[in-house]
Known about the structure:
- It is a single chain.
- The chain is of the alpha+beta class.
- The protein has a single domain (23-100), classed as Nuclear Transport Factor 2, Chain: A.
- Helices cover 36% and strands 35% of the residues.
- It has helices at residues 2-21, 27-35, 42-48; strands spanning 23-24, 56-65, 68-76, 82-88, 94-100.
- A five-stranded antiparallel beta sheet has the order 1-2-3-4-5.
- β2 (56-65) and β3 form a beta hairpin.
- It is globular, with a radius of gyration of 17 Å.
- The N and C termini lie far apart (47 Å).
Amino acid sequence: xxxxxxxxxxxxxIASFDSIAGNELSSEQIRDKVRQGxxxxxxxxxxMNQARLQGRLLDLEVEQxxxxxxxxxxxxxxxxxxxxxxxxxxxxxxxxxxxxx
Length: 101
């Protein structure tokens, strides 16, 4: 019986952590939001920021966090460094940029 309570407590902690950390949107949800004009397409985001978004795209996630939809992208540069960006999906504005080794 104690194991069940521990499991339920862990499950509750995981559920609340997920709601804090943000939710990744599915491809279908992203397409729907682009069609409805709620967010910009990936192509639009890349065109708007082409001067800063250099290198080869390594990873892309679209998350909804506290009502905001964010494109999270990682690019690898020719020198091997990785640039990570957080971009507002509604406006295309770069919110954060970080260089990783």
